[in-house]
Design goal:
- The chain has a seven-stranded parallel sheet, with no helix packed on it. A six-stranded parallel sheet has the order 4-6-8-10-12-14, with no helix packed on it.
- By secondary structure, it is mainly β.
- The longest helix has 6 residues.
- The protein has a domain of 92 residues.
- The protein has one helix and 15 strands.
Amino acid sequence: MVFNRKSDPKPFELPAATPRVSTFGATHADAASVPVTSVEPPLVESVIGSDLSIEGQSITIRCKGLLRVNGDIQADLHGRKLIVGDEATITGAITAEAVDVYGKVQGSIEATSVLLRATADVEGDISSQTLSIEPGASFDGRARKLSGQQSAEKPREPLTMPVQAVQA
């Protein structure tokens, strides 16, 4: 019987970053006309399915990549990019770079870019640099434009005021 030694396995390497066209919130027709603008690592997509419900007090869901929500969420969501699916219901505040809403949101949205699709139903205030609302979308709240210096991902600093002591 003859034994052959197997070669050492190669270490796992991540694929090199490739130029990507950012088509988040764009249709197929739009994607063909978008130029390659930057080199960014691929976004990891996380999905909260339609059969999942997350409920509780003081819950915050954080995602570093793309989060697609199709279930019922009673929590605050923080992430880079967020897609609220047709079947989704989110009750809580949303903070992200880009938000694409097809479903229902009850709470505030703060993002650089917000797109309300025709099936969207939003009850709450929206703060963004760009806001697009398709015909048929329902929006009940106030819209506020963020300046280029304000970022949706940066937490706000608490206000501090000096207080003078009162002597009796």
